[in-house]
Amino acid sequence: MSQEPRFVARHLKPATTHKTYTLRNFREIPQIAHLDEQQRFDIEVVGRILPFRANNFIVDELINWDKAPDDPMFILTFPRREMLLPEHYETIARLLRTGADETQIKAAATDIRMQLNPHPAGQMEHNVPTYQGMRLHGMQHKYRQTVLFFPSQGQTCHAYCSFCFRWPQFTDLPDFKFARRETNTLLAYLREHPEVNDVLFTGGDPLVMSAKNLAAYIEPLLQSDLSHIRRIRIGTKTLTYWPYRFLSDTDTGDLLKLFRKVVDSGKHLALMSHLNHPRELEPEATRHAIVRLRETGAVIRTQSPLLRHINDDPSGWSTLWNKQVDLGCVPYYMFVSRDTGAQHYFSVPLVRAWKIFREAYQNVSGLARTVRGPSMSATPGKVQILGPAEMMGQQVIALSFLQGRHSGWVDQPFFAEYDDQAAWLDQLKPAFGQKRFFFEEDAAAWSVNV
Ligand SMILES: *Cc1c(COP(=O)(O)O)cnc(C)c1O
Ligand code: SF4
């Protein structure tokens, strides 16, 4: 393995101006000439269903255009034909080719989007908490210790990942926005729930917000009447899609000051960084941003789904985890890609996911084995695939909850019939001729937090 000296941020290029690319202007990207006209048309077709957005940093620093359209970082950001089912692709392609009007295209797009399971795992119905009889939209409370908050100005991202399970938020589907503007009800709810120790700001990407807006959400959590809130997490992709957020944006100083303030208050601040491919850790600006962030006392933890065509090989994962440890980041979760959007394109069967995880995990030191997975964020909880086994003469798959709607479910192994094609929990059958899994028996539990 090559030896790299500790990264010292010295030769940072001057601040880059931000440029956003969407369906409207993607043809202005100079490197787009690497694609042929059919591939550019496919972006327009698929981009009508799955949201598309990129920026100049991704285009210039992360994508290997010589390998496009098969480059993993290209696939991560750009729509392509195979992400839609053939009949869906044809419907939109026909409308575009025949010059149909906008209303017609939009109606067809809405119809197709509704067929793509826009809200997996019952997110909209199951996990919304109530306060004084009021349902608190823009918040989720699924696991005892942790409340999720979706700040309204943070419900967009620097770029949209083509696999994203929150994709409907970025479309004009009217009923799929999930956000909250004010913090008063969050604070009132937290005061009534001393069992909650963690607040996770998520989106979208909360770090697209200005430091001022972010502070308005975070600073109230530092008040003395919320001393039971010990940990604040921010789910983000900014570190690798716009590292200049931590280096040279106009309010970078205020943002880093806010982070320091959280840490100085004695709370744990974690950036839950989405990191899908080892290349994302190569740009100098990103490494520099990691140094700056760590100087504030924040911890960077990393997570990603396992995605066919992007990161479905063990050596990529061990490289990713090793690089993270070298840079002082903590590998946290490997997820199974969700049953939504372009899942048919990205999904990896559970048994294969386990094989990839295991081979990668075997090849890293204990310092990188902080990662857990592969994990499905399913309706009853986060379910880890422990692996295939033979029990009482039967081939089974052993599973266990990393997080459960009922904390009593956690770490209790359970078994499904062996199935090397199943790609999600609902495709598995209980082993040993049982009718239901143990957590399904516990009918009352399903009403927790509903
Ligand atoms: C993953 C997740 C959390 C956080 O779980 P941890 O295991 O503590 O990281 C909280 N709420 C929901 C709804 C989640 O999906
Ligand atoms: S950054 Fe996260 S929320 Fe935003 S598109 Fe990517 S996966 Fe989705």
Could you characterize what this model shows?
By secondary structure, this protein is an alpha/beta fold. Helices cover 29% and strands 18% of the residues. It has 15 helices and 15 strands. The strands form three sheets. The chain has an eleven-stranded mixed beta sheet. It has a two-stranded antiparallel ribbon with strand order 1-2. The mean pLDDT is 92. Bound molecules: pyridoxal-5'-phosphate and iron/sulfur cluster.
Per DSSP, the total helix count is: 15
Heteromolecules bound: pyridoxal-5'-phosphate, iron/sulfur cluster
The average pLDDT is 92
Provide the helix percentage. Answer: 25-40%
Question: What is the end-to-end distance?
Answer: 50 Å
Radius of gyration: 22 Å
What is the helix/strand order? EHEHHHHHEEEEHEHEHHEHEHEHHEEEEH
Shape: globular
Report strand %.
Answer: 15-25%
